[in-house]
Amino acid sequence: MNRISILAAAISISFSLGFLASSFYAPEPSQPQESNSKNLGAFSISLSVKSLEKSKIFYEALGFEVFGGATESNYLIMKNENALIGLFQGMFEGNILTFNPGWDENAQEIPDFDDIRKIQQKLKTKEIEIINPADEASSGPASFMVKDPDGNMILFDQHR
Questions:
Q1: Residue 34, in any domain of the structure
Q2: Domain with 113 in it: what CATH number?
Q3: How much of the chain exceeds pLDDT 70, in percent?
Q4: What is the pTM of this model?
Q5: Domain count within the chain
Q6: Please, are residues 109 and 99 in contact by the beta-carbon 8 Å criterion?
Q7: How does residue 21 score in pLDDT terms, banded at 50, 70 and 90?
Q8: Which residues pair with 142 in a beta bridge?
Q9: CA-based, 20 to 30 A from 115: which of 47, 99, 130, 138?
Q10: Rounded Cα distance, 111 and 9, in Å
């Protein structure tokens, strides 16, 4: 539990320092820059847990509430304002960062988003290896995964 507190504090400090630094080093308006921004949709982390019930109790103590899922299906989606955590027992190894293009943090459709195939194509041009690529000739729901340089899995999962 102490490790989780340290990790949460480190992430919070990193985001704060990044925001502060970006305000000092923002490019001047006259300098054109290539836009790498994509509307990736809702962000969540999917945690592989040993005990769904113990994890549920723990995250409820942090202020999260059950937002979706079902204990009989061995997963719960927990929500605290716009923060989402998926708890999955026995479904996969390791933890997964997840983006849901086309959805906001309330699982509501957003009108303007980059289709998953567009995101996949952009990552390919950056020479990022795609795991289980989405069929680029298709439309609608699709998914693919990538690994970051440290081996962390990132799932792009479009539901519409």
A1: no
A2: 3.10.180.10
A3: 76
A4: 0.70
A5: 1
A6: no
A7: very low
A8: 158
A9: 47
A10: 34
